[in-house]
Amino acid sequence: MQPTDEQLAVLDAYCAGNHLAIQAGARTGKTTTLTLLAQTATGRGRYLAFNKAIATAATRLFPRHVQCKTAHSLAYAAIGHRYRHRLGGPRTPTWRTGEALGLSQDARIHGRDLGTRALSHTILKTIARFCHSADPEPAPHHLAPPRGIDTPQAHAELADLLLPYVRKAWDDLRDPHGTAVRFDHDHYLKLWALTEPTIPTDFLLLDEAQDTNPVLEHVIHAQRHHTQLVIVGDSAQAIYTWRGARDIMTTFDGTHLNLSQSFRFGPHLATEANRWLTIAQSPLRLTGTPDIPTRLTPTPDTATVLCRTNVGAMVEVLTAQQTGHRVALASGGAALQSLVQAAHDLTQGRRTTHPELLLFPTWAELQDYAEKDPAGKDLAPLVDLVDRHGTHALLRALQLLVPEQDGADITVSTAHKAKGVDVRVEGPSSVRMNVPSSVARIVIVQGCAGGDSWGFFPLAAHDRSACGTWCGLGRSTRLDRQAQGRDRRAGLGIR
After folding, report:
1. Is the C or the N end of the chain the one with fewer CB within 10 Å?
2. Residue numbers of the domain that contains 287
3. Range from 174-178, 230-234, 427-431 carrying the lowest mean pLDDT
4. What is the CA radius of gyration of the chain?
């Protein structure tokens, strides 16, 4: 394939020794450009991917002198393996974690009574914010106070009370033999970052740079004195700000270049896509490929449903199956099936070995935990789903799922899993969203790129709680406000 002028500009800038920040729109040849760069480059290279699946796929594309990993895999090899026996531990009630840290009394902060559960939950959230930061020690600005603690005086008073416990929790996490706080992958990533690691490579490619936590940003920037940095991403696709990530593309100290020509569609669809990019305040505008036939038309049939959470996706699966459709769930339903099976065991009076529900001897205790313990809010959607539909119906629905490539009528996915994924359907069909507009991070643009290939662009959107309708192609797409609440715990399989 003949490189485009934009791709040649990237190669020229790299050969000149510049650090690069590349804004790459949907299907603009980002991977092709990076592989061309890697083939041109001499010496050792590292490609840091957003997740393991992308890293594995990249291994098949990049030349052998480029190692394709995730940041977590680097951290695990250096530090995390020392804590492998602590990973995947069972849930612990919030109050018990606080008790293990020595927190045994309620507190009154500026007229508000805070129980040990709320205080313990605040300690754990503060640790999480610290681990996402580039800071060397927990500090008052990492504090994640409960609702109502919103004045500087109340914040300072709560920080004075809880920071000693936060530091004690961090000491426990640093100890391979610690037991007080549940250990997860972000903890060893932070421990690795604090060692000020040097990544031994001659050039470093960071993908999805628009969703980079400050802890990783600090590590990447520390490499610029001994290696050439190339960061790539799309500012319009930043979707992890809720967990501390930020877009490092626009502030990167280096040469800024764009990949704007899409190889998926023609100019008409590019014009429509640019309308949404303007709304999303993206610094990038797309151009289409003139010889790709493209048509824009209303699409009456739903082929893909995007949801905020996997629990919301499960509801959509049930609804579609009840109308006789063959339904696929993006990435399969294994994790969700394991969780529902564990819930089924509890509802039948049997304990489960599932690490997320191991804590609970009965379903009633799980219901109480999800309703009353701040740490259990992420389990509330699962509890509500089981209470509404029953585990037998859920397990049956999961068994009826068909593979994504096996002629499904409808594919259901979370927005996060759909990021960067192609949707292929038979003929013109629509993408429907089950996402509250007040938290929407996805905008859909549809189009035909020759034959039966249909694409959509996940774009970051700003809060538009007053607007429930997004204008689509020739018609409007109303965002379903019945989506389940946000679910932020990564290990559950229900996010």
Report:
1. N
2. 267-324+410-485
3. 427-431
4. 24
